[in-house]
Write a structure and sequence with these properties.
There is one protein chain. This protein has 3 helices and 10 strands, in the order αααββββββββββ. By secondary structure, it is of the alpha+beta class. It is globular. Keywords: Coiled coil, Nucleus, Transcription, Transcription regulation. This is SAGA-associated factor 29. It holds the Pfam family SGF29_Tudor.
């Protein structure tokens, strides 16, 4: 019943999103006329200034006209921005409902073709899903003067943050050989009485469940940081991090080689590797979603 309700709500949100996209295009088309007027006004000013023998200047007429045109352009841009933010909210709500539906289906033992049970999932499929999850991580787009929130890029979670059921985290677990390692895991539950998480190893076909204290859990970013507007929300060059090694589900210590230059870029990192003379691997790309602050201070 809950699955049907979620499907209905998602269909409604998709319809609303479609309308918002249409409104965005209508708003953009309307504003283009005003932008064209601004361009033409500047061209007329340049033509008149060239014909003047005296020092060129902007006449009171053009100053007044341009002030009005730019005021309108600013209002148009703010209106379009408002619609786009509303659309982003709808997308976030849809993604949240899809995640809730996936968790409910897993709990009920019901699966569909796009979300098979992990016991039947081939490793290649899992790697593809992890890559898609990184690509679809939303980009934080703040308002002018607004600072990026916790869990945006390199900004850690607040001290009282509790990861939700279904959230992906880096979890420090003890292997069968007794060694500890950081793995990609999914939160099953959190107990406020014991302050401990139950998490599933994302790569153990649902068989490996771990009970871990909060200090052994690092929530993954919920937004990508935009290097062009919020560079302070990114790890800097030579900073020590934990990064998901490509084509695996384990996090290893690494140094940032090159931070992202554009919103869609990955980090370039150097993994600690004693098989190389300098102790580090060649640069490898890792998505923002899978790079977190390193809690360890000493190399074992």
């Amino acid at each position: 019943m809950a699955l049907v309700s979620a499907d209905t709500k998602i269909a409604e949100l998709l319809t609303e999103l479609h309308q918002l996209i249409k409104q965005t295009q209508e708003e953009r088309s309307r504003s283009e006329h005003n932008l064209l007027n601004i361009q033409k006004t500047h061209e007329r000013m340049q033509t008149e200034n060239k014909s003047q023998s005296t020092c060129p200047s902007t006449s009171p007429y053009y100053r007044t006209k341009l002030r009005g045109l730019y005021t309108t352009a600013k209002a148009d841009a703010e209106a379009e921005c408002s619609i786009l933010r509303h659309a982003l909210d709808k997308i976030a709500e849809i993604k949240s409902l899809l995640e809730e539906r996936r968790i409910a289906a897993r709990m009920a033992g019901v699966y569909n073709d796009s979300d098979p049970p992990r016991k039947t999932m081939r490793r290649g499929v899992l790697m593809t899903l992890l890559q898609q999850s990184a690509m679809t991580l939303p980009l934080w787009i703040g308002k002018p003067g607004e600072s990026p929130p916790p869990l945006c890029g390199a900004i850690p979670a607040s001290s009282d943050y509790v990861a939700k059921q279904g959230d992906k985290v880096a979890a420090r677990v003890k292997g069968v050989d007794g060694d500890e390692q950081w793995i990609l895991a999914e939160v099953v539950s959190y107990s406020h009485s014991t302050n401990k998480y139950e998490v599933d190893d994302i790569d153990e076909e649902g068989k490996e469940r771990h009970t871990l204290s909060r200090r052994r859990i690092i929530p993954l970013p919920q937004w990508k940081a935009n290097p062009e507007t919020d560079p302070e929300a990114l790890f800097s060059k030579d900073q020590l991090v934990l990064a998901l090694y490509p084509q695996t589900t384990c996090f290893y210590r690494a140094l940032i080689h090159t931070p992202p230059h554009r919103p869609q870029d990955d980090y370039s990192v150097l993994f600690e590797d004693t098989s190389y003379a300098d102790g580090y691997s060649p640069p490898l790309n890792v998505a923002q979603r899978y790079v977190v602050a390193c809690k360890e201070t000493k190399k074992k």
